[in-house]
Design a protein that fits this description.
By secondary structure, this protein is α+β, with helices and mostly antiparallel strands. The protein has a domain of about 120 residues: NADH Oxidase. The protein is about 35% helix and about 15% strand. Helix 2 packs across helix 5 and helix 3 runs antiparallel to helix 4. The chain is globular and about 60 Å long.
């Protein structure tokens, strides 16, 4: 492994965090409090973001607000059975963070790049939650951007709801979800040089 003189002392720890993070489905109380969440978000905001536009905002949904959001999402369901299941899904964690994409008009930074920056922030936030011992999973599904949900959360016409980070304490005894070894050779090609 190549090391660099200006690499942080805990660079190996960062790689360990990346390799050990798993999406956690079974979550319980507690979730991070307001001060800790702001601290984590300030760190997540350092993710790659051309122009530092921060084209996103988060909505923290806790307590009974999850029930009301579930009811709004259930309005978009085609059947009563599906509506009940959809409403219940909003109670899977003590906290939901709605990820709202806010694209900005910019002469040199296109929408796709701003969407990539928003995804980078959310991924970094999941890693930071893992470092602190919290569990998290990013869920989308068919109804996050449904009109009743958009209205309930106050999502603007130019905004897009990209789903939710479900956050809380991992339920004890839960086996980590395995990651199959990634064969990435087919995902990397070389131009202008030989494979190293």
């Amino acid at each position: 492994m190549t090391t660099f003189p200006d690499a942080p002392a805990d660079a190996g720890t960062a790689e360990t965090v990346i390799r050990t993070r798993r999406s956690t489905i079974r979550l319980t109380e507690p979730a991070p409090g307001p001060d800790e969440l702001l601290d984590l978000l300030a760190a997540a905001a350092t993710a790659p973001d051309h122009g530092q536009l921060r084209p996103w905002r988060l909505i923290a949904i806790c307590g009974d607000a999850r029930l009301r959001l579930g009811e709004a999402a259930a309005e978009a369901a085609p059947t009563a059975d599906q509506a009940e299941r959809i409403a219940a899904k909003h109670l899977r964690a003590p906290m939901m963070l709605a990820i709202v994409f806010q694209p900005r008009d910019h002469p040199t930074i296109p929408r796709w790049e701003q969407l990539a920056a928003t995804s980078a922030m959310a991924t970094t936030l999941l890693l930071l939650l893992h470092v602190r011992g919290w569990g998290g999973i990013w869920f989308g599904g068919p109804y996050p951007d449904a009109p009743p949900v958009r209205k309930h959360l106050g999502i603007g016409d130019r905004e897009q709801l990209l789903g939710y980070l479900y956050v809380g304490t991992p339920v004890s005894g839960q086996a980590p979800r395995p990651h199959a070894p990634a064969d990435v050779r087919s995902k990397l090609s070389w131009h202008g040089g030989t494979e190293r």
